[in-house]
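Handout, section B. The chain below has 256 residues.
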Amino acid sequence: MIHPALQSQGNAEGRTPVVLLTGADRLSLDSVTFSLVDSFPSVCSIAYDVRPNEAVESGLDIVRNVAKPQASGVVFGESDSFGLEGCCMSCTVKHDLERTLGSLQGRAGAFLVSLPVGLEATPVAQYLADSFRLNEWGESMFVGAVANAVGLDEFEERFFDDDRLCLYGMGEENGVYDERSTGVVVSRLIREASCVLELPVIGAGCLARHLDTDGECACRDIIRAIALRDALVCEDAHTVGLVDLVQASVCAAMPL
């Protein structure tokens, strides 16, 4: 199976990979982001998040943080925010990401883009792939992988949760919620990914809560069943690097 948003190895050779990272909770996203950035010193990290803002018509701000690699090894982040505009969050993020990547062309060995909590990567990846083909600056880039960060600690709670996904904050007063249920988002993010990165259980975790009749936790089996047949499913996100994700995704995207 060829992932719809990934290009073949022939098209990717010699180009700068752009890896898109998704997740259904901020803690898992941040943990995997830190680990992947640490694995590739010349990566430029672009992270998106949301914040409530009653001053704009949509009621939401998109926050973008860009951390560029430095020769000294010290990474400095630049943060900016802007109102959610257009028809949806996906359109706002992908249009801003296109402009941001254009301004950073040639300044990093790879780009790691952490999308807002719950945002699906496929529309963003397809938009970027088209943009790279149409714009001269994009000839040096390609969509290298669509990765999903999954924390096992509360996986079953989220997977079976039919309440709205929380994108930011807590409670009705300061929380920002998706219209979709948490379980639906968790499943869709796993299903679209070329790489699924599991964060190991911390402490007792789900091992104390979700045991079947044989005393085993079924979380990993559920994730494997949802994921694409040829997706890379890694049981410990901290054991793989950015290069591993791109290589696995490019191989999976090669036509047989």
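Note. The chain has one domain: 16-253. Compare this with the example in section A.
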